[in-house]
Design brief:
The structure is a single chain. By secondary structure, this protein is of the alpha/beta class. It has eight helices and eight strands. The chain has an eight-stranded mixed sheet, sandwiched between helices. The chain is globular and about 40 Å long.
């Protein structure tokens, strides 16, 4: 359970355009954390994390099309178009907090999207940190994700099937969103490129059934900055509508350090366990 203490009073949640949701606005936030949902996920999944991180960071969660309040908005036809649309939507808001600081956090499909959006931004407009959860590195993604993966199977592997099992309508909406994201994910093609300057910290849940043979160290090749990786308690998804996820770790990563001490915490010596 997180020990980060939320403020006694918080402003009302707000939507910024079509693409962004601010669950717990922080008028004097030191850093802005843009959160990218997993396949089938929506922005509201990051509300507990936003509460746990306040006032260390202000969470801005991505609102993908084809679900929730954007159910009538079509998903872009391919991954590159999606990256372009998200980059354009984020661009006016990349001022970060009072010090201009901002970072990205993404889970599974959202981790890949967060990284590729960071790469698509101008070098001087990229996040200081990308936290990638439950995902292979971009270079390893295609080989892992192009296999046939049924939406129902993915819902089960993420551990979310139990929460919608008693609600057939909700389950069908969730499956529809997953199918839309899987279709976009299948169009992703990794292209060799220079690593970005943003620091990268890769995380995996110790009980994640989807990272059985995929390590996290492959992400190191995608950054010129600091790199760290950890295995933490949990499954494929760490932050959900019911759990704040790695709030304490994120708080430590996002807290400014003196220049001489600015580094990503050391990784443990073990890799994700095979399930």
């Amino acid at each position: 359970m997180s020990t980060v203490t939320p403020p006694a009073r918080t402003a009302r949640p707000r939507v910024e355009g079509d693409w962004l949701f601010v669950p717990v606005p922080q008028p004097h936030r030191p850093v802005r954390l843009f959160c990218f949902p997993h396949a089938g996920g929506d922005a509201t999944a990051y509300t507990p994390l936003a509460r746990a991180l306040a006032p260390v960071a202000e969470v801005w969660a991505l609102r993908p099309p084809a679900r929730g309040g954007r159910s009538r908005h079509p998903m872009p036809p391919d991954f590159d178009t999606l990256v372009g649309a998200v980059s354009e939507a984020l661009a006016p808001h990349l001022t970060g907090g009072e010090g201009g600081r901002f970072a990205f956090y993404g889970q599974s499909f959202g981790a890949l999207l967060a990284y590729e959006v960071a790469r698509a931004l101008p070098a001087d407009r990229r996040p200081e940190l990308v936290v990638a959860v439950g995902a292979p590195s971009p270079a390893e993604w295609t080989a892992r994700e192009t296999r046939d993966l049924d939406a129902s199977e993915l819902l089960r592997l993420t551990g979310l099937d139990e929460s919608v099992r008693a609600h057939p309508d909700l389950a069908e909406l969730a499956l529809g969103a997953i199918r839309a994201d899987l279709a976009v994910s299948a169009t992703y093609r990794h292209r060799p490129h220079a690593p970005i300057g943003s620091a990268i910290h890769a995380l995996a849940g110790a009980q994640d059934p989807m990272l059985a043979t995929t390590g996290l160290t492959g992400w190191a090749a995608h950054t010129r900055g600091a790199f760290g990786h950890r295995v933490v308690p949990g499954g494929h998804l760490l932050a959900t509508v019911d759990r704040s996820g790695p709030a304490d770790l994120l708080a430590s990563l996002l807290t400014p350090l003196p220049a001489a001490d600015r580094r990503v915490p050391a990784a443990p010596h073990h890799a994700p366990r095979e399930q």
